[in-house]
Amino acid sequence: MHKILASMLFLATACGEGQRIAPPGPPAPSGDEEVVAKAPLAHLVIQHDVIRLKPGMTILFATDSARILPESEPILIEVASVMEQNARIHIRIEGHTDNTASQDHNQALSDRRAQTVREYLESKGVVAERLDHVGCGENTPMADNATEDGKTQNRRVEFVIVRHSHPRGNCELYHFGSAT
User: Fold this and answer.
1) pLDDT, tens digit (0-9, with 9 covering 90-100), for 116-149
2) Which overall architecture, per CATH, does domain 34-161 show?
3) What are the sequence ranges of the domains in the chain?
4) Helix axis angle, 73-85 to 103-123, nearest 10°
5) Are 61 and 68 in contact (CB under 8 A)?
């Protein structure tokens, strides 16, 4: 019995306390890697938990529709490129609306828009298992819906990096520049 305990203590000491021995082969994805881009990004800012659109950038849809307008394609191509360069990350696409229509209508519209963005990214080669989507409706405004500028800011798509060690709830408000 003492020899077994001594052997276990020796192995624990030799391996280093608190370290895990990884099985052979590539490491399992943890979702906690830092996201990087190989070239300067024209439309995006990578933060710890969110791939954000730079100020003034927005993914545009046809009015009251989930059809992505062509001028938004460069932004989405850049998101697909970041996903390709960071093959181990997983994102949740969150669609948001202003409060112009009914809450039920806005919820359904935001879900359709998030789904459309997901389908677009899949069409650019992003593996479906690395993408989730959710409609947030009008429930997480980032500006005052009483003004046109505020409504414009509230109509947005966010790309949340899903992390295992710091999971984020659906439809949280992400302040620009926040690292957590």
Assistant:
1) 999 999 999 999 999 999 999 999 999 999 999 9
2) 2-Layer Sandwich (3.30)
3) 34-161
4) 60
5) yes
